[in-house]
From TrEMBL:
Composition bias, Basic and acidic residues: 80-102, 112-127
Xref: InterPro entries: Vma22/CCDC115 (IPR040357)
Protein name per its UniProtKB record: Vacuolar ATPase assembly protein VMA22
Top-level taxonomic group: Eukaryota
Gene Ontology biological process: vacuolar proton-transporting V-type ATPase complex assembly
Cellular-component GO terms for this entry: Vma12-Vma22 assembly complex
Molecular function, one GO term: unfolded protein binding
Stored PANTHER family: COILED-COIL DOMAIN-CONTAINING PROTEIN 115
Coiled-coil features, chain-numbered ranges: none
Chain residue ranges for the region called Disordered: 80-127
Length: 190
């Protein structure tokens, strides 16, 4: 047997071990997601029981609801959470505020004319996007816990999808290596 054949066999072995560990990781992600969804539904049922079925129903939903979590894919078909524009700007705004506070006392006392800057920032109407406010001001703690469980499960689903994509890529690589192994073996036999 040639060295090429042996290296292909070694790559197949290594890829098989990596694939099996990735399958194990995927199974753990499935179990974790199942637990998060289960906890979310149990807490939601408890909230319906404590707050009443009329309080938590489809009649309480805001008809103008929007998704609180969005995903995006990259060139490699990986899925990630899409950040809202307002969330992207928050760190920059915080940095600007910190710099403004730091520079506040750096003026020298020799300035005879105080500088007055007009307020350029308009107050933006703060809208609360939290869907829990649809169900009243004081919602059940079970409903909050349910929301957290469902959010966590949804975020973990992204990891699960990315793991599936990695497994498919490994399968394709495995089949390519098998074909090159067969071609290499036929070259040795001839």
């Amino acid at each position: 047997m040639t060295d090429n054949y042996k290296t292909i066999c070694d790559e197949l072995d290594a890829l098989t071990l990596t694939y099996l560990s990735k399958v194990s990781e995927y199974i753990e992600l499935c179990k974790d997601n199942s637990n998060h969804f289960q906890k979310g539904f149990v807490e939601l049922a408890h909230a319906k029981y404590t707050m009443g079925t009329r309080t938590i129903s489809h009649y309480s939903y805001d008809k103008r609801m929007k998704a609180s979590l969005q995903v995006e894919t990259d060139d490699l078909k990986r899925v990630s959470i899409k950040q809202d524009k307002s969330e992207k700007d928050k760190p920059e705004q915080m940095k600007e505020k910190e710099e403004g506070l730091r520079k506040r006392n750096t003026q020298t006392s020799n300035d005879s004319e105080p500088k007055i800057e007009p307020k350029q920032e308009k107050k933006v109407k703060k809208t609360n996007k939290d869907p829990l406010h649809w169900f009243g001001l004081f919602v059940s703690p079970s409903l909050r816990t349910s929301q957290k469980s469902f959010k966590l499960a949804t975020e973990k689903l992204i990891d699960q999808v990315n793991t599936i994509i990695e497994l498919k890529e490994m399968e394709e690589r495995y089949h390519d290596l098998l074909e090159s192994k067969e071609a290499s073996r036929q070259d040795v036999e001839v």
